[in-house]
Amino acid sequence: MKRSVSFCCLGVMGYPMAGHLAAAGHGVRVYNRTRSRADAWLAEYQPDSQAEPRCGLAGTPAEAARDAEAVFVCTGNDDDLRTVVLGPEGVLSSMQPGATLVDHTTASPSIALEIDARAREAGVGFLDAPVSGGQAGAESGGLTIMLGGEPADYEAVEALLDCYARKRLLMGPAGSGQLTKAVNQICIAGVLQGLSEGLRFAECAGLDAARVVEVVSQGAAQSWQMDNRAATMLEGEFDFGFAVDWMRKDLAIAMSEAQKTGARLPLTEIVDGFYERLQQQGGGRLDTSSLIELLR
């Protein structure tokens, strides 16, 4: 069943995610702060001009969300999210009762709870739904989505999420998606530091590091990071992927939540310190696999 939806914020993730919804035949109204980005999206995904248009542009988040059955947001941080969702021209100011708001931003569990409360007051369903898989996963439609919210709201958008998800799972009430994403980022940080040290050890030992990866990647050391980042790490290529700045934002969320729950994150704190050093050296926009550069 084709549906009328909205997608706000067309960054490296949101642009292709909204595109998958349009490609599946849904009517998609988009909003982006930089209008040229929205214009480019519409030029790419608008159906034949002779047919009745299914997709369109909006000048504000509120305009984008008006009359939409489901509204998707994927922005940068808590402050941006608060503006797009809760601001005077935010999506909640115009969403119709019974619609569902899905937030794909990696944000704090606290703002997820804040938005959930405001959405309930407006009769709107809400799901915090951060994703994993990066730009490549968004473009291929192979993202993993971890969600927090009510089962009925999850069921209302399952088919829409399948347009760009390889795996999706409801983790619990509002905020649970963001907490699960924190687990994801904690694990990635540890794996990348271990991979960096292993590859540098191979280089210093005089081994052919590429051949080392070829063999150990077939055993217990295998990981997504090894499969997708080892080669570029060995070549010293980091001008792509998930930026150090973004990872530090995510790890700050994880460490803040750990303080509230009493969880200990000693390795995460260490790796976050390494990322801070990369930022200080001007590497904030480099891929997170640039950790190896601190060892060279």
Task: Explain what you see.
The chain is an alpha/beta fold and 296 residues long. It has two domains: 4-172, 3-Layer(aba) Sandwich (Rossmann fold), CATH 3.40.50; 180-295, N-(1-d-carboxylethyl)-l-norvaline Dehydrogenase, domain 2 (Orthogonal Bundle), CATH 1.10.1040. 50% of the residues lie in helices and 14% in strands. It has twelve helices and nine strands. The protein has helices at residues 14-23, 35-45, 61-65, 78-86, 109-121, 134-140, 151-161, 176-204, 209-216, 224-235, 244-261, 266-280, and strands at 4-8, 27-31, 56-57, 70-73, 100-103, 125-128, 131-132, 143-149, 165-172. Strands 1, 2, 3, 4, 5, 6, 7, 8 and 9 form a nine-stranded mixed beta sheet that branches. Helix 4 (78-86) links the parallel strand 4 (70-73) and strand 5. The longest helix is centred in the middle third of the chain and has 29 residues, at 176-204.
Can you give me a brief rundown of this structure?
The protein is of the alpha/beta class and 296 residues long.
Could you say what the CATH architecture of the largest domain is? 3-Layer(aba) Sandwich
SSE succession = EHEHEHEHEHEEHEHEHHHHH
Structural category: alpha/beta
Helix content: 40-55%
Give the CATH topology of the largest domain: Rossmann fold
- How many helices? The count is 12
Structure keywords:
single chain, 296 residues, alpha/beta, Rossmann fold, N-(1-d-carboxylethyl)-l-norvaline Dehydrogenase, domain 2, 50% helix, 14% strand, globular
Question: Which helices and strands, and how do they pair?
Answer:
Blueprint lengths: L3 E5 L5 H10 L3 E5 L3 H11 L10 E2 L3 H5 L4 E4 L4 H9 L13 E4 L5 H13 L3 E4 L2 E2 L1 H7 L2 E7 L1 H11 L3 E8 L3 H29 L4 H8 L7 H12 L8 H18 L4 H15 L16
